[in-house]
# Entry
Amino acid sequence: MTNKVTGIQDISLDVIRKKRFRIDGDDNRILELNTSDLNILARLKEAYPRLVNLADNAFKDLPKIEDTTEQTDFINSVETTELIESLKKADSEMRDLMDYIFDSNVSEICAPSGSMYDPISGQFRFEYIINVLAGLYETDIESELTSIAKRVQKHTNKYSKRK
# Structure
């Protein structure tokens, strides 16, 4: 549509279609993702090693409780307080990285409680989330690229030599 005052035509290139996913059947946890975003590969390549490093470092120096009589002392110790603060910081950084990777508020929607390094099915929560969500991207990107290839082939077939 042309603006009558300025003579400028407006066009929209905002064709990104974010898909909506309900997490664990909860209507209050709707995740919106652009599952055709190829830049996720670059963000994942950059951020994933940092996620793994945070998880490795978070559990490197975990103190051991020898018996139950020491639990109160253990819980109230300076080392435990420092450990808790370290784990909170690691979780916060992990959440920021997860949001960066998926360009969405994945951490808030997919992990509203607990931590990103909670164990789930033999892996850390952040790994579990990445594996589940990456499958959505893989399916959509593959479908879109197949459509593009078919469209291009339709236009280039007449230029190909047939034997």
User: Anything to note?
Assistant: The two ends are 48 Å apart (CA to CA). The mean pLDDT is 85.
